[in-house]
Amino acid sequence: MTNNLAALNAVAARLRADSIRSTTEAGSGHPTTCCSCAEIMACLFFGVMRYDPRDPRNPVADRFVMSKGHAAPILYAAWKAAGYFTDEDLLSLRRVDSDLEGHPTPRLPFVDVATGSLGQGLGVGVGLAINARLDGTGYRTFVLLGDGETAEGAVWEAAQTAGYYRLGNLVAIVDLNRLGQSQATMLEHDADTMRARFEAFGWRAVAVDGHDVKALLEAFALAGNDGDKPLAIVARTLKGKGVPFAEDKDGWHGKPFKKGEEADRALAALSQVDDSLIAGLKPPPPPPVAPPTHEVKPMAPPPYKKGDMIATREAYGDALVALGAADSRIVALDGDTKNSTFSEKFLKAYPERFVEGFIAEQNVISMAAGLAARGRIPFASSFAVFLSRGFDQVRMAGISGSNMKLCGSHVGVSIGEDGPSQMGLEDLALYRTIPGCVVFYPSDAVAAWNAVRLAAEHQGMAYIRTSRPKTGLVYDAAQQFAIGEAKIVRSSDKDALTIVTGGVTLFEALAAADRLLAAGIAVRVVDLFTVKPLDTATIAACARETGGILLTVEDHYPEGGIGEAVAAALTGEPIRVSRLAVTEVPRSGKPEELLAKYGIDAAAIEQRVMQLLRQ
Description:
Elements: H1 2-26, H2 31-36, H3 38-48, E1 63-66, H4 72-81, H5 87-90, H6 121-135, E2 141-146, H7 153-164, E3 170-176, H8 191-200, E4 204-209, H9 213-220, E5 231-236, H10 261-269, H11 275-278, H12 312-326, E6 330-334, H13 338-341, H14 344-349, E7 354-356, H15 361-373, E8 377-383, H16 384-387, H17 391-400, E9 405-409, H18 427-432, E10 438-441, H19 445-457, E11 462-465, E12 487-490, E13 498-501, H20 504-518, E14 524-527, E15 529-532, H21 536-545, E16 549-553, H22 562-569, E17 576-580, H23 591-597, H24 602-614
Parallel strand pairs: 1-2, 2-3, 3-5, 4-5, 6-7, 6-8, 8-9, 9-11, 10-11, 13-14, 13-16, 16-17
Antiparallel strand pairs: 10-15, 12-14
Helix pairs in contact: 1-3, 1-4, 3-4, 3-9, 6-7, 6-15, 12-19, 15-17, 20-24
């Protein structure tokens, strides 16, 4: 044991030195936050975690999440010590041609999700731990948090969920180094209060000296098995540990030691690194457990028939059940809205693959990111407005290239009496900004069914916008759909104008088209199906064939919605684009009243078409 402790202390010294060297070479970074967690990282990577440095994505290996993402240099240093990187790799930190970025991203195979927007790593860890339960592989998840980030409410959403589900395969380590970016943290070195907070959420928690490898190993040994309480280790540390002129001193956050005398002084002050002690040290191997296997087969076609009246939110639930039957990788999550989003149908069919996240949407999204990182295909649902609470989590999942799928229901003024706080009128704008995210806006049950199928097939994030009102069918069950392919649902060779829309306003557009036709005016109607990617070719061709006039209609604010998407796509085209959207904060009322009041119902569409044609 003594020799092993000496070796781990030698690793910690090497990790400190390499973190300082790489950040000094880069001319930027956070060496002092790396110094505070050196013993923690040494114990984790060479005494606790079971993994194979030659196979970072091994599905049964333990997982590590660097939630305090600005400590990335010591994560890279640990993988160098494990033999994955060379010294030359390490010194490429933060270069534009290097995958060793300022904060970790999944460009590196040992990084499950991008971190650095603080407060999200523990939620991801909860998702990783739940996946280990589903797969039965028994891997453990370790999450290293900074003490400053525990001010984030998302941390406690995750802590509460982990306690509720008794995720004994999850370990959180809080690096209690006292100093934040601009001043001391709220608790500073009050380890007992931090420990009590985790205990209050159903965790087993211990406070230790974070620079004592023996105490750390004893704390890690307390980790249980799935079904036990999760373990929190509150490690009291010193920021800048080992460098006297920076140790436990304010003003050093995010400042590398300058090349030359300052860096030389910092390195000289560290404990002498005895690399001979490190040479034979290897991480514990992954357990001899078979990796999970999954059954995937074609999804059943939609069961709907002419005359059915079904809301797209209900079709989402139906389709999710069918998808779950076809693909055992599918997992559903919800934020206590499952009886409104209809994800409860999946719960009834596959209770073991459903995760109730309660009213903690940020954590629901983080859990989905963790599940997706391990090969699951998670579908997470809530009201669109509530999912917007977790937009930073969505943004970080986009940086991760996450394969999560989100469904936001109850969009637009068409939800009716619940009023503006419940009306998703911003969601298209939000999700259109995420790189690689497909944004579906199905108009009927058949389209919604296909949106779920295509979302699952798409490798990357997807967002499905579903509506509350029941509507009839526009499409028969055999209709084929594709990402980025709009549907022309009404056309003739006499069309004077094209209406582009989606969702509930498609039915208003069709009603307006009937009224206009009775007055001798034919118009074309296009259902977008996907707002991103947009079927620019079809829209432009329709506009050119109908006098170069196009009208967009949407149950969404004008900013970032269908109108702006279409206008941007047609830049440079000789096409006049007019828009109807919700242009003010709405109020409560019956759906039909609100569609009329805010100028997106059939009558408003008819009136705007007449104005455009007169012009």
